[in-house]
Amino acid sequence: MVLIAGPFFVSDFLTITATRMLILAMLAISFDLSWGYSGIMTFGQALFFGMAGYVVALLANKAGFVQIWGVLSIGMLVGLVVSFLIAWFLLLGKRKPEIIFVALGTLTASYAAERLVAGWQWVGAGNGMSIYDFLMIGDYELEPGMLFYYLVAAILLIAYLASRYLVRSQFGLVLAGMRQNEERLAFLGYRVQVFKALVFCFSGMVAGLSGALYAYHEGFVGPGSMGIALSTYVVLYGLFGGTGTLLGPVIGVVAIESIAFVLSDIDAVRSFWPIVLGVIMLVVVAYKPTGLMGFLVSQRERIGSFGIAAARRVIEPKAD
Amino acid sequence: MALLEVRGLGKSFGTLRALGGIDISVSASTFHGLIGPNGSGKSTLLKAIAGEHYADEGTIHFDGQDITALRPFERANRGLNLKFQITAVLPELSPYDNLLLSVQAGQSVWALIRSRTKGALHDEIMDSLERFGLMDRADDLASELSHGQQQWLEIAMSLMRKPKLLLLDEPTGGMSPEERRATGDLLLPVKQQCALVIVEHDLDFIKDICDHLTVLDQGRVLDDGTVAEIEASAKVQEVYTTRV
Question: Is A99 near chain B, with CB under 8 Å?
Fold first, then answer.
């Protein structure tokens, strides 16, 4: 309700801040799919995010292509293709990759991409690129503001529901099994790495989608949007809010960004607010490894029984 | 040709020669016991057959195909399943979900994402829960089951894949005598479905349910034959009386 009614009561500035949060929430969900559900420690979500942003910015500036359907599909496609290439190198080898190998691999890719665009004049080098046009729905120009907010909220909801469907399907049951004992799943006949790569690509696609939205919302893309700082932030959003829950990372984004927003406005801490934020995050992650969501749901509920036990009860009600 | 044909299988861990050229054949619809003193290579042989480690030499043929170089999931999809020694049920899933995970393993990724097959598999899962006495615990976490129940769930999961050959590593490990008897009763009807290779320390259990025995000692086949033949074997008597 707050999400729906909010923009009617607050200033445009707050609406824009909230839109930014929702876009980042989508990125955080994409991280949760990889780490929380498939055990892929990815420090490269910003790579898909930033790469999609750059591609749609280039299309806008060099080819004048700003139609929303095209922009969003291209964002997803870029995320999908880039994550597929990364998955191909890191996940689909003959040997099972170690977590640290994947973490460093994605981190390196993200870092390399950041350095590459920072030194490449054609894409604006260190200054990045501004997008001078607005996103178009047919002939209508979509400016950052209330309508953009609702659009992002709707897309976030769709991305959330699609992810939720995936992790609660029979496919999701395989992921749950994989998190508990990967080797056992292989002996049951599952190609564990293929499942991981599929989730990774889906998560790359969601990250690409959010990256395309972000580029238009900010009207700007820069090397920082695909770098390791943002990639690390995404990991923190996830851990702070609670991974393996999909909603947790959304809460993480809103909590961290709200705290940052409020702290940076208080005179007493204005000069050192990032340190205060850092301490808060450290305390939560250290004392509540399940994140903020850990206060709301039990361990059992996080894993769920995919509605199957529930379905069985409908067919055959228990005596008690 | 036998269902499983192992020829000249060798495996070393560093300087330790765990398997020194093993030959073994398992026919369809037989229960084949593997016995031998500790460290004789029983578990290593089982793991090499399942693909958990790869042999250094020799070949494994299964159902007419050379599977020596296949990965575990490829072997599993051809009908060769391993039940682990230490129970490896998925602890944070219910027995029901464990079984579903097992029975749906052959399906395409797309079918799993669409998630429409679980209804059709329901009856099969219920039958299995009933047969292995797990109906009352179907919705609990697998980690809350007793040790014996976890072993049965493991066996039930392995059978769900409708294997042609099931490898059981110490199916009665850690069980009480009553649970052992119950396990024997659960396994006997399986004979119509598939062949078993059983590694077991409990010789009485193995004599009760196996048709054929292979005795391993120090990574080699010491003797091979029916239960009666092995019981009469002087070589086996010697190993078991002098070294155990």
Answer: no
Q: What is the CA radius of gyration of chain B?
A: 18
Contacts of A180 in chain B (CB under 8 A): 90-93
Residue numbers in B near A186 (CB within 8 A)? 71-73, 76
Residue from A68, A297, A102, A310 nearest A199 by CA? A102
Question: Which residues does A203 contact at the CB level (< 8 Å), separation at least 6?
Answer: A30, A31, A33, A34, A42, A45, A83
CATH code of the domain containing B68:
3.40.50.300
Contacts of A281 (CB under 8 A, 6+ apart): A236, A240, A256
Phi, psi dihedrals of residue A286, rounded to the nearest 5°? -75, -40
Do B233 and B175 sit in the same domain of this protein?
A: yes
Instruction: Report ipTM (2 d.p.).
Output: 0.79
Is the domain of B82 the same as that of B170?
Answer: yes
Task: Look at residue A308 and tell me whether its pLDDT is greater than 50.
Answer: no
Q: Which of B101, B109, B138 sits opposite A173 (nearest CB)?
A: B101
What CA–CA distance (Å, rounded) separates B1 from B26?
A: 10
The pLDDT tens digits for B166-203 are 898 888 877 888 888 888 888 888 887 889 999 988 88
Considering the entire predicted model, what is its pTM?
0.82
